[in-house]
Amino acid sequence: MKILFLTFFSFFLVLFTYAQNSRSDTVNILKYEINLDFTDMDNQQIKGNCKVNFTPKINGVSQLKLDLLELIVDSVVSISGPLSYTYNDTLLNIDLGLSLTTNDSSYVTVYYHGSPQQDATGWGGFYFQGNYAFNLGVGFDANPHNYGRVWFPCFDNFVERSAYEFNMITSAGKKAHCNGVLISENVISGDTIIRKWVMNEEIPSYLVCVAVADYTTVHQSHNGLLGSIPIELVARPSDTTNMKNSFIHLPNAIDIYETGYGPYRWNKVGFSLVPFGSGAMEHATNIAYPLSAANGTFGSETLMAHEFAHHWWGDLVTCETAGDMWINEGMATYSEYLFTEKVYDYETALEEIKNSNKSIIQYLNLNEGGYMPISGVPHEYTYGDRVYKKGALMAHNMRAYLGDSLFFYGLNEVTNTFKFKSMNSEQFRDELTLKTGVDMTPFFNDWIFSPGYAHYEIDSTIIAPNGANYDVEIFIEQKLRGNSVFHTQTPIEITFYDNNWNRVKRRVITNGQFSSATVTIPFQPVLTLLNEDNKLNQARTDDRLVIKSAGTKTLNRSLFNITTTSITDSALLHIEHHWVKPDAIQNNPNNYRISESRYWSVKGILPADIDATAKIYFDGRYNSGYLDVDLVPVNGDSLILLYRENATQDWTLYLYYTKTTLSATIAYGWMTIDSLLLGDYAFANGDLTIGTTEIALNKKEVKVYPNPSDSFVTVQLAKSIKNSTVQVYDLTGKLIIEQPIFDTLKINTSDLDPQTYILLVIKEGKSIYNQKLVIQ
């Protein structure tokens, strides 16, 4: 059924795309001349005409159909005089009065006026705000999203590219800024002026713009790969200083993107400030940029970097359809990370990537209609997180597949081949494959054309000496989240540590559900980590930390809190939150039902004397992504904690934790792991036996002394918990001592081996207290 649905959806998408783009198969729009009067801004009115120069692509063209949205058409003329037309507030159908062939060229001029529309969502269209008039070239709710049609007649699709000339009349000290180069500015009379702009580079209708206000221009320049690049920062006079300060790193962005993506091929870099608070729009050479983001600080400079990056992804190379929008927006969002990496450092960029990956895995499928590919998204999610954020994460993965040199070489080649053209995902794949020599079919099949995520984890290793080196055979298992087809030919980086924290890395290729590889390293490893540096975004999020002193660490990506009470040497910890179903319980006489969605791994190199606890939260709430709703649809009463040392062992009930449930109506609370061990942890649903309680006791209610002990230990209880049972377990979970207690109990420990144990107090079949007990 899933394959049939995707096939039908793809077929429907092709038909819809054809309907949007079909006019561009019959007529080529060569140039638009937009001549508009903005002197009646108080009444939010425009008036003027648009001359559309075109040539047929097929013989027998006798009509021209132009998109124009809810403006008043006064007349349509051509070189031979007035033309007949029909108009339904959406489509202007013009009778050319003759039949044209592919050898002909012609034009029509549409005279019109009115108040241009905004998109129903409030994002996109035309705005009159105070002293400003400006457009944003897409409408989030519009269908199609292209929104040139709100202010001039056009072929409003992603594939039709044309040159533009603008003649804009303004008054009262206002000036119009458009795409391209300012050719002239002339006074008509009094304070009324006309400005001519020319854009010879061909662009689609959604990248066409006008911004009108009492603007002044800060002129700068930067030496690019193809020569000096003019920079125009356009703002009202009172805003220019802040704008210049916020755009200090714009020259860095030019260098970064020219190196990564190829030469800047436009006639200028332009930004115009507008009073729009919900984003920016990448109009070619004249980006509409929010006034609030140019406040003199660097707080929004990644927005500047994003919009500017569109001059490679979204302006120079444009998506063929809305379903390919990840090429525009995913690559531009990835460019924010690249900007941060090069202006600041890779670690800062990687933190942003990791945090985004966690957010996407946790919430995307809930917020945007379930699991689906980033290519071919439904219309209502064109401008959602799947396109922007997950698209950027997949660009990061693409970099891992190709390596830095081939990645940036390939992107340079793609922008060169498809410059001033539209491109779809298949063409992107094929061009990368052709130019890099790396078959990108597996990558696109797995990450671009398929839903969900892959997850990789080391199942086991076999270590054998090899002279002065060691051979390590690594067994890797792949799991899936939101998908049913295992990924193939996936490169994964493995990191090996010795006891002194020296590390080496090796790259292996995984294929299918189970893979193995053998690598040679210069030492015997004590810790092996997969994808430690997150070169591949997958269904796992993690935190790496070094602990040198007592304290609490809140780890947001791994959803894991660690409290260290004592330590004399440094500890290296790598906490992983796996967003997939853990391995099944093999020996399960109690019929525990393990989580369907997640588990944790605690890996690291620990000093012998570390004393640490941990807190992990169970949560069935929507605003946390329904993390554990499969286990606890109503409350947390039946939730238990399982543990295994590694993937070669079976899951068992963990004994050394307390549970706190905060809500009787929905599962929300935490488990406090009293003795944090290296290994894997998972929630399960089962009967409560030992190790769990509704609310952990205050430690003042139980006294255990002396601790450490070498011969005996005394346990003393508060009045509220008299008549209980004391149990002592070793760290394998074996029950060593079990004795009843009224209020005080003295236990002989002289026969116990010197090591750490866990002491529990049991009342009415439930653990109400646990503590480490150290026997010397």
From TrEMBL:
CDD domains from the UniProt entry: M1_APN_like
Superkingdom of the organism of origin: Bacteria
Cofactor(s) this protein cannot do without: Zn(2+)
Family: Belongs to the peptidase M1 family.
Span of the signal peptide: 1-19
Residue ranges constituting the Peptidase M1 membrane alanine aminopeptidase domain according to the UniProt record: 261-447
rRNA-binding listed as a keyword: no
Example GO biological process: peptide catabolic process
Tagged with keyword Isomerase: no
InterPro entries the record matches: Aminopeptidase_N-like_N (IPR045357), Aminopeptidase_N-like_N_sf (IPR042097), Peptidase_M1 (IPR001930), Peptidase_M1_aminopeptidases (IPR050344), Peptidase_M1_dom (IPR014782), Peptidase_M4/M1_CTD_sf (IPR027268), Secre_tail (IPR026444)
Official protein name in the record: Aminopeptidase N
Secretion system C-terminal sorting domain boundaries: 704-775
GO CC terms: cytoplasm; extracellular space; membrane
NCBIfam families xref list: Por_Secre_tail (TIGR04183)
Aminopeptidase N-like N-terminal domain: residues covered: 31-207
Gene Ontology terms for molecular function: alanyl aminopeptidase activity; metalloaminopeptidase activity; peptide binding; zinc ion binding
Reaction(s) the record says it catalyses: Release of an N-terminal amino acid, Xaa-|-Yaa- from a peptide, amide or arylamide. Xaa is preferably Ala, but may be most amino acids including Pro (slow action). When a terminal hydrophobic residue is followed by a prolyl residue, the two may be released as an intact Xaa-Pro dipeptide
Enzyme Commission number(s) from the entry: 3.4.11.2
Alphabetized UniProt keyword annotations: Aminopeptidase, Hydrolase, Metal-binding, Metalloprotease, Protease, Signal, Zinc
